[in-house]
Amino acid sequence: MLSSKLTRAENDSEIVLSWLRNKQSVHTQKQYSYTIEHFLQFTGKNLSQIMIEDIQDYLSSLKLRNQKVSTIKVKLMTIKSLFSYCVKTGYLPLNPAAMVDNLRVNDNISQKLLTVDDVKRLMSHTTDIRDKLLIKVMFGLGLRVSEAINLQWANFSVDGEKVNLTIVGKGNRQRTVLVIPSLWQELQQLRKEGRDYLFTASKKNVPMRRNTAHNMLKRVGKKAGLNQDLSCHWLRHSHATEAIKGGCDLSLLQQSLGHSSITTTQKYLCLRKNEGSGNYINF
Fold it and tell me: Of 2, 6, 132, 177, which one is least surrounded by beta carbons within 10 A?
């Protein structure tokens, strides 16, 4: 008789480990692992004992701790992902998380945008060339912070005056973006013998950490008098809106940002304040 199970996992720890091994990003693995560990500690139960109410109670506890709706949504999606995996592999017969509705997030990207002048102001408030160029790369190329800090010189390909950058992004998807010559020349200031990464930790041939980059941007943003909620992802949002404003078409923007669906890219179409299509019609 054939087994209905697709996994050798015999306990929760083993199935969680199997599920995590499907995640390409080390950062994602750590984030998901922490969320599930915290969730199971809260319930005090094994996965097979979890009921719908346990998940609902966990979400309520996060709201009581004043966690952002966007943060709670990510944690719920993580829990849903694990239970879905458990059912698909035959480890669990039922998925209680499937009955918990997804949270709606009013993610107003228009409140998370920087102008070109804002970015210039940011760079003017740091004397560290590494930090200044990290800001410029995230904004100028629209990179995620994880993509930017992990850039290596080997990722660049120079063909005459053209410089192409190969990026392995979210979901282990690979894309290539064009680097303008002036930025490429500025990046040469970061070259050091024996260093593979552009943005390294102090005196080491290892990439700087995500929290180091975030803390740096917060510190510089405070000096520049910008929004205290500023984060590295704001630079990516701002890249997208500025590119569209400058005439970049959606398909090229989708390619540059590494979005798997153009629907994700389309959200940047409605973010141009104080503008209307009527401005482009003369009669």
Answer: 2
